[in-house]
Specification:
- The protein contains seven helices and eight strands.
- It has 238 residues and is α+β, with helices and mostly antiparallel strands.
- Strands 4-3-2-1-5-8-7-6 form an eight-stranded mixed beta sheet, sandwiched between helices.
- A hairpin with a 3-residue loop joins strand 7 and strand 8.
- Helix 1 packs parallel to helix 5, helix 1 crosses helix 7 and helix 2 packs across helix 4.
Length: 238
């Protein structure tokens, strides 16, 4: 029998799904998870469904081998191994998002590297790694992270970064809380959009590594401010 998680954590996970849809990061696809507050060897994630429809009753538990533990026998997303292997590799990570946020996609398929251009996206650091699935799955895969080996390869590519791009497939974002990972996912998309616009104007003056670290630390002190606005907007649209 799965150990019950804190209801507040579940409620935050549910509202995070709705926030990410409202902010254009998720649509009918993509997923967010959070590590179980009482069992670090498990995480909470919705059953396989559209993120905008998730309720507390839809949340299931998954272990770090990708096995779902649900007394009703429900299934979660095929790409649950993105989450399980990142949690296994990164004890510091408490929440993970995989999305296909549209402005980010071009940076995973071109030579243009996603880098922080403003103070809201300093968490991107000096360089955002790009996962090339062909190195692990050959040239005929469906690009999905559908097993432990591919999840581990992705986690290795991510390393200690906050964000990694998946070539032709979107991105993965990590955080130490649901609030932080939602902030990072939204501003990863925002940075990608702004960077694309700036590239048409001329040479970009990116944040230095020191500026990126300092701005990331600053923003982490104010995560509740945007969270409350996004939460209110999501509840109004429910």
């Amino acid at each position: 029998m799965p150990q019950p998680a804190n209801p507040v954590l579940i409620d935050d996970l549910v509202i995070a799904n709705h926030i990410l849809v409202n902010q254009g990061v998720l649509d009918g696809f993509g997923h967010i998870s959070t590590r179980h507050d009482k069992d670090p060897g498990r995480f909470l994630i919705a059953r396989s469904m559209a993120p905008g429809l998730v309720t507390a009753d839809d949340v299931v538990q998954v272990d770090l081998d990708g096995k779902v533990h649900d007394d009703r026998g429900r299934h979660t997303y095929v790409e649950r191994f993105i989450h399980s292997e990142i949690y296994r590799a990164r004890p510091d990570v408490q929440a993970v998002i995989h999305s296909h946020s549209p402005a980010v996609i071009p940076f995973g398929i071109t030579g243009a590297r996603l880098r922080p251009i403003c103070h809201m996206s300093g968490f991107l650091g000096a360089q955002t790694p790009v996962f090339e699935i062909r190195h692990s799955a050959g040239e005929s895969s469906d690009l999905l992270i559908r097993n432990q080996d591919l999840g581990k390869a992705l986690a290795d590519c991510l390393g200690q970064a906050a964000v990694a791009l998946l070539r032709g497939h979107g991105n993965v974002v990590t955080g130490i809380s649901i609030q932080q990972v939602v902030f990072r996912a939204i501003y990863t998309e925002s940075n990608a959009r702004l960077q694309s616009e700036a590239m048409r104007m001329g040479e970009i003056n990116f944040l230095t590594p020191g500026e990126a670290e300092a701005t990331a630390d600053m923003n982490d002190q104010h995560l509740d401010r945007p969270w409350q606005v996004w939460k209110k907007q999501a509840l109004q649209r429910s």
